[in-house]
Design brief:
Blueprint (H helix, E strand, L loop, with lengths): L2 H5 L3 H6 L5 H15 L6 E5 L5 H8 L3 E6 L2 H7 L7 E5 L11 E6 L10 H14 E12 L1 H6 L4 E6 L2 E10 L2 E10 L2 E10 L3 H9 L3 E7 L14 E8 L1
Parallel strand pairs: 1-2, 1-4, 2-3, 4-5
Antiparallel strand pairs: 5-11, 6-7, 7-8, 8-9, 10-11
Helix pairs in contact: 3-4
């Protein structure tokens, strides 16, 4: 199994990241909706949705929303919130499962670049292209690799729910690698996160291999302009030609 199939489906992944800022995430969604001027009847796909926090908020705003993720446990949790205009499915983001169905596809919180090859990144983008309606919009919210690499915290300990998570980060062979080691109930655990360090030029090249076009590039959740060295995020907004 690939690293993301085990780690993202682990209860410890959700423990380590349980303090994510939902208020910030909701403000980001509100900013996106305003910027994109999406019709209230829009059909939205949350691609790599995790436990569905963005999907649920989009649905609360009135949008018909589908959330998909490779983690069965995350989808099982998210399905508690199913309703006629919100549902969740276990899906691989590299594979399209419908043709021209969505007005917008969101890929948020660095849910891209998990794979061994950049060819697989193109597969994700082709799937996005296939699932979008003509002139449909897409959003990719990725880390700003320039800033992350320049400010890499090599070692860190986080004490959460009586567990000491020992984190080590390195930048190697074009990937940002994080190892997570801890002990729980007298059992040792080891997990790895590996995300490709994709820069703006990488995304521009990957997207150029599809019929998707970039419209805007932002550097944070308030949609301020992107600065290679200072911005916290690399947010790419575009549409299907």
């Amino acid at each position: 199994m690939e690293w993301f199939e085990t780690w993202f489906d682990s209860e410890y992944y959700h423990k380590l990241y349980k303090n994510r800022d939902d208020e910030e995430a909701e403000q980001f969604i509100n900013n996106l909706i305003t910027n994109l001027q999406l019709n209230s009847n829009s059909n939205i796909l949350d691609l790599a949705c995790g436990k569905g926090r963005h999907s649920i908020f989009l649905n609360n705003l009135g949008f018909k929303t589908v959330g998909v993720d490779l983690s069965p446990k995350s989808i099982a949790f998210a399905r508690k919130f199913n309703n006629p205009n919100l549902h969740f499915e276990v899906r691989d983001m590299r594979k399209s499962f419908c043709e021209g169905q969505f007005d917008a596809i969101f890929n948020l919180f660095t849910s891209f670049g998990y794979f061994e090859s950049k060819t697989e990144n193109i597969e994700v983008l082709i799937a996005i292209e296939n699932m979008l309606k003509k002139n449909g919009v897409f959003v990719i919210d990725f880390m700003n690799a320039n800033k992350v690499i320049g400010n890499l915290v090599e070692e860190e300990i986080k004490f959460i729910d009586q567990i000491n998570f020992r984190l080590k980060r390195t930048y190697i062979n074009g990937n940002i690698l994080k190892t997570i080691d801890f002990t729980d109930n007298q059992k040792d655990f080891h997990f790895t996160e590996k995300v490709q360090a994709l820069f703006l030029e990488d995304f521009q090249y990957l997207i150029s291999q599809t019929n998707l076009k970039i419209d805007s590039i932002f550097g944070d959740y308030n949609l301020n302009p992107f600065d290679r060295m200072l911005s916290d995020r690399l947010i790419i907004v575009g549409r299907k030609g």
